[in-house]
Design goal:
single chain, mainly beta, Jelly Rolls, six-stranded antiparallel β-sheet, three-stranded antiparallel β-sheet
């Protein structure tokens, strides 16, 4: 059996700022950590004051905040997030993630896993889950 690939999150956070690729459909960058084609993990950087539009994913995912404060909005309700918080969003549930006054760094673990720059990673929707051609933010303003 091959040795496991071990990635240090502190090192990955530093690498993210210089090696991260744009996240499809969001003002964020990401860096892949692990994937076996079904389950995968990425580290994401959401710059201060920026936010993902309301969207869904094809599968469930866990989000773990490692740096900065931010928000998670699920079904139109917004919750504050701080380092050390972990939360799960079920697949196909409309949600949005935002950064507070400082950069927000998250580890996203999902299945099925899609690369951060893949258009299949997330679909833009309204709070009722209806598909949108143009994304909206958690407050309903155009993204």
């Amino acid at each position: 059996m091959p040795a496991p690939a071990i990635i240090n999150l502190a090192d990955a956070t530093i690498d993210l700022l210089t090696l991260g690729v744009p996240v499809h459909g969001a003002p964020a960058t990401g860096l892949p950590l692990h994937s076996n084609g079904h389950l995968g993990a990425d580290i994401l950087h959401v710059p201060a004051g920026k936010q993902f539009p309301v969207h869904t994913h094809p599968g469930d995912h866990l989000l773990y905040c490692i740096q900065g404060t931010g928000t998670i909005s699920v079904e139109g309700v917004t919750y504050d997030i701080r380092p050390g918080d972990i939360y799960m969003v079920d697949g196909q549930v409309p949600h949005a993630v935002g950064a507070g006054p400082s950069d927000h760094i998250l580890v996203a673990i999902g299945a099925p896993h899609k690369p951060v720059d893949s258009p299949e990673r997330m679909a833009f929707v309204d709070w009722d889950g209806n598909p949108l051609d143009r994304p909206v933010n958690a407050d309903g303003t155009p993204a």
